[in-house]
Design goal:
single chain, Fic-like fold, two-stranded antiparallel sheet
Length: about 230
Protein backbone atom coordinates (compact mmCIF):
# COMPACT_ATOMS: atom_id res chain seq x y z
CA UNK A 1 0.00 0.00 0.00
CA UNK A 2 1.35 3.42 -0.92
CA UNK A 3 2.08 6.15 1.59
CA UNK A 4 -0.90 8.46 1.92
CA UNK A 5 -0.39 12.22 1.73
CA UNK A 6 -1.69 13.71 4.96
CA UNK A 7 -1.43 17.34 5.92
CA UNK A 8 -2.03 19.29 9.11
CA UNK A 9 -0.93 22.60 10.58
CA UNK A 10 2.35 21.12 11.84
CA UNK A 11 3.35 19.78 8.42
CA UNK A 12 6.38 21.22 6.71
CA UNK A 13 5.77 22.72 3.28
CA UNK A 14 8.29 23.73 0.63
CA UNK A 15 8.08 27.38 -0.40
CA UNK A 16 10.13 27.87 -3.57
CA UNK A 17 11.17 31.21 -4.99
CA UNK A 18 9.77 32.32 -8.33
CA UNK A 19 9.05 29.34 -10.57
CA UNK A 20 7.03 28.61 -13.68
CA UNK A 21 3.28 28.78 -13.06
CA UNK A 22 1.93 25.64 -11.42
CA UNK A 23 -0.90 23.76 -13.12
CA UNK A 24 -4.28 24.95 -11.87
CA UNK A 25 -5.93 22.17 -9.86
CA UNK A 26 -8.93 22.05 -7.60
CA UNK A 27 -8.29 20.54 -4.16
CA UNK A 28 -10.19 17.44 -5.28
CA UNK A 29 -8.16 17.10 -8.46
CA UNK A 30 -4.90 17.54 -6.58
CA UNK A 31 -5.89 14.96 -3.97
CA UNK A 32 -6.79 12.46 -6.70
CA UNK A 33 -3.47 12.99 -8.47
CA UNK A 34 -1.51 12.65 -5.22
CA UNK A 35 -3.20 9.32 -4.48
CA UNK A 36 -2.46 8.07 -8.00
CA UNK A 37 1.12 9.27 -7.80
CA UNK A 38 1.62 7.71 -4.39
CA UNK A 39 0.64 4.32 -5.77
CA UNK A 40 2.92 4.69 -8.77
CA UNK A 41 5.86 5.79 -6.62
CA UNK A 42 5.32 2.93 -4.17
CA UNK A 43 5.11 0.35 -6.96
CA UNK A 44 8.33 1.64 -8.49
CA UNK A 45 10.07 1.53 -5.11
CA UNK A 46 9.05 -2.12 -4.71
CA UNK A 47 10.21 -2.87 -8.25
CA UNK A 48 13.61 -1.32 -7.54
CA UNK A 49 13.92 -3.27 -4.29
CA UNK A 50 13.12 -6.53 -6.03
CA UNK A 51 15.58 -5.76 -8.82
CA UNK A 52 18.52 -5.10 -6.53
CA UNK A 53 17.78 -7.89 -4.04
CA UNK A 54 17.14 -10.67 -6.56
CA UNK A 55 19.83 -13.29 -7.01
CA UNK A 56 20.52 -12.17 -10.56
CA UNK A 57 19.89 -8.50 -9.92
CA UNK A 58 22.57 -5.81 -10.23
CA UNK A 59 24.50 -4.72 -7.17
CA UNK A 60 22.74 -1.76 -5.61
CA UNK A 61 24.23 1.69 -5.99
CA UNK A 62 22.29 4.79 -5.03
CA UNK A 63 22.27 7.33 -7.84
CA UNK A 64 20.80 10.81 -8.16
CA UNK A 65 18.87 9.60 -11.19
CA UNK A 66 16.99 7.09 -9.01
CA UNK A 67 16.03 9.79 -6.52
CA UNK A 68 14.91 12.03 -9.39
CA UNK A 69 12.77 9.26 -10.88
CA UNK A 70 11.01 8.58 -7.59
CA UNK A 71 10.33 12.28 -7.13
CA UNK A 72 8.95 12.55 -10.66
CA UNK A 73 6.44 9.83 -9.90
CA UNK A 74 5.39 11.60 -6.69
CA UNK A 75 4.66 15.02 -8.22
CA UNK A 76 3.83 14.24 -11.85
CA UNK A 77 0.98 16.50 -12.97
CA UNK A 78 1.38 18.79 -9.96
CA UNK A 79 4.43 20.89 -10.86
CA UNK A 80 5.89 22.02 -14.20
CA UNK A 81 9.08 19.92 -14.11
CA UNK A 82 8.57 16.83 -11.94
CA UNK A 83 11.78 15.02 -11.03
CA UNK A 84 14.05 17.91 -12.00
CA UNK A 85 16.36 19.51 -9.45
CA UNK A 86 15.07 22.86 -8.31
CA UNK A 87 16.49 25.92 -10.00
CA UNK A 88 15.38 28.44 -7.37
CA UNK A 89 16.01 29.03 -3.66
CA UNK A 90 13.57 27.31 -1.32
CA UNK A 91 12.33 27.65 2.25
CA UNK A 92 10.68 25.09 4.53
CA UNK A 93 7.78 26.32 6.63
CA UNK A 94 7.79 25.32 10.31
CA UNK A 95 11.51 24.49 10.15
CA UNK A 96 14.65 26.36 11.16
CA UNK A 97 16.77 24.78 8.43
CA UNK A 98 17.51 26.68 5.23
CA UNK A 99 18.39 24.32 2.37
CA UNK A 100 21.54 24.95 0.31
CA UNK A 101 21.54 27.15 -2.76
CA UNK A 102 20.00 25.54 -5.81
CA UNK A 103 23.33 25.72 -7.64
CA UNK A 104 24.80 23.37 -5.02
CA UNK A 105 22.05 20.74 -5.27
CA UNK A 106 23.72 18.46 -7.89
CA UNK A 107 26.99 18.35 -5.93
CA UNK A 108 25.22 17.76 -2.62
CA UNK A 109 23.24 14.91 -4.12
CA UNK A 110 26.39 13.33 -5.54
CA UNK A 111 28.04 13.66 -2.12
CA UNK A 112 25.08 11.92 -0.48
CA UNK A 113 25.28 9.03 -2.92
CA UNK A 114 29.04 8.82 -2.42
CA UNK A 115 28.53 8.62 1.35
CA UNK A 116 26.21 5.64 0.95
CA UNK A 117 28.65 3.94 -1.42
CA UNK A 118 31.69 4.65 0.77
CA UNK A 119 30.10 3.28 3.94
CA UNK A 120 28.07 0.48 2.35
CA UNK A 121 30.25 -2.27 3.81
CA UNK A 122 30.82 -0.99 7.33
CA UNK A 123 27.65 0.89 8.33
CA UNK A 124 24.36 -0.68 9.34
CA UNK A 125 21.24 -0.70 7.15
CA UNK A 126 19.46 1.49 9.69
CA UNK A 127 22.29 4.05 9.67
CA UNK A 128 22.45 4.34 5.88
CA UNK A 129 18.68 4.49 5.63
CA UNK A 130 18.54 7.18 8.33
CA UNK A 131 21.30 9.18 6.69
CA UNK A 132 19.48 9.23 3.35
CA UNK A 133 16.18 10.16 5.01
CA UNK A 134 17.81 13.15 6.65
CA UNK A 135 20.11 14.19 3.83
CA UNK A 136 17.44 14.35 1.11
CA UNK A 137 15.39 16.54 3.43
CA UNK A 138 18.44 18.66 4.25
CA UNK A 139 19.31 19.21 0.58
CA UNK A 140 15.64 19.62 -0.40
CA UNK A 141 16.59 19.09 -4.04
CA UNK A 142 13.10 19.42 -5.52
CA UNK A 143 10.39 22.05 -5.69
CA UNK A 144 7.89 19.63 -4.17
CA UNK A 145 7.67 16.08 -2.86
CA UNK A 146 10.97 16.09 -0.96
CA UNK A 147 9.60 14.36 2.14
CA UNK A 148 7.74 11.66 0.23
CA UNK A 149 10.81 11.04 -1.88
CA UNK A 150 13.16 10.89 1.10
CA UNK A 151 11.02 8.25 2.77
CA UNK A 152 10.81 5.87 -0.19
CA UNK A 153 14.51 6.28 -1.05
CA UNK A 154 15.39 5.59 2.57
CA UNK A 155 13.29 2.42 2.51
CA UNK A 156 14.88 1.36 -0.76
CA UNK A 157 18.35 1.74 0.80
CA UNK A 158 17.26 -0.17 3.91
CA UNK A 159 15.98 -3.15 1.93
CA UNK A 160 18.87 -3.09 -0.52
CA UNK A 161 21.40 -3.18 2.31
CA UNK A 162 19.51 -5.98 4.06
CA UNK A 163 19.37 -7.90 0.79
CA UNK A 164 15.63 -8.55 0.78
CA UNK A 165 12.26 -6.80 0.72
CA UNK A 166 10.94 -6.43 4.25
CA UNK A 167 7.60 -8.15 4.92
CA UNK A 168 4.59 -6.25 6.19
CA UNK A 169 1.54 -4.58 4.72
CA UNK A 170 2.18 -1.20 6.35
CA UNK A 171 5.72 -0.07 5.58
CA UNK A 172 7.99 2.35 7.43
CA UNK A 173 7.26 5.25 5.00
CA UNK A 174 3.52 4.85 5.63
CA UNK A 175 4.01 4.73 9.39
CA UNK A 176 6.07 7.91 9.36
CA UNK A 177 3.44 9.68 7.24
CA UNK A 178 0.80 8.85 9.83
CA UNK A 179 2.66 10.67 12.61
CA UNK A 180 5.26 13.15 11.41
CA UNK A 181 6.19 15.00 14.59
CA UNK A 182 8.83 12.46 15.72
CA UNK A 183 10.16 12.42 12.16
CA UNK A 184 10.50 16.21 12.13
CA UNK A 185 12.20 16.13 15.53
CA UNK A 186 14.72 13.57 14.25
CA UNK A 187 15.45 15.73 11.21
CA UNK A 188 16.01 18.78 13.40
CA UNK A 189 18.37 16.81 15.66
CA UNK A 190 20.49 15.87 12.65
CA UNK A 191 20.34 19.45 11.32
CA UNK A 192 21.70 20.82 14.61
CA UNK A 193 24.56 18.33 14.59
CA UNK A 194 25.46 19.22 11.01
CA UNK A 195 25.78 22.87 11.99
CA UNK A 196 28.58 21.64 14.27
CA UNK A 197 30.12 19.70 11.36
CA UNK A 198 28.94 16.34 12.73
CA UNK A 199 26.87 13.60 11.15
CA UNK A 200 24.49 12.47 13.88
CA UNK A 201 21.36 10.66 12.73
CA UNK A 202 20.94 8.75 16.00
CA UNK A 203 17.42 10.06 16.58
CA UNK A 204 16.40 9.06 13.08
CA UNK A 205 17.93 5.63 13.68
CA UNK A 206 15.81 5.24 16.82
CA UNK A 207 12.70 6.29 14.92
CA UNK A 208 13.31 3.87 12.06
CA UNK A 209 14.08 1.06 14.48
CA UNK A 210 10.76 1.59 16.25
CA UNK A 211 8.83 1.64 12.98
CA UNK A 212 10.70 -1.44 11.76
CA UNK A 213 9.78 -3.28 14.94
CA UNK A 214 6.13 -2.29 14.47
CA UNK A 215 6.15 -3.41 10.84
CA UNK A 216 7.59 -6.80 11.72
CA UNK A 217 5.30 -7.16 14.76
CA UNK A 218 2.34 -6.85 12.41
CA UNK A 219 3.75 -9.72 10.37
CA UNK A 220 3.95 -11.84 13.52
CA UNK A 221 0.34 -11.02 14.40
CA UNK A 222 -0.78 -11.91 10.89
CA UNK A 223 1.12 -15.19 11.05
CA UNK A 224 -0.57 -16.13 14.31
CA UNK A 225 -4.09 -14.90 13.53
CA UNK A 226 -4.15 -15.60 9.81
CA UNK A 227 -5.68 -12.18 9.18
CA UNK A 228 -4.18 -9.52 6.95
CA UNK A 229 -4.52 -5.80 7.68
CA UNK A 230 -6.10 -5.18 4.28
CA UNK A 231 -8.73 -7.82 4.89
CA UNK A 232 -7.64 -10.13 2.03
Amino acid sequence: MAESVTKDESDRHSRPGTTDPLPERTPEERASIEVRNGLRQFDRMIELIDQCTGRSGPRFRLRSSTVMELNRLAVDGLIPAPGAFRYVPIEISAASHTPPDHLDVPREMDDMCDYVQSYWSDRSPIHLSSYVMWRVNWIHPFVDGNGRTSRVVSYLVLCAKLGYRLPGTKTIPERIAEEKKPYYAALEHADRAWKQNRVDVSEMEKLLQSHLEAQLADVRIQAISGNREDGD
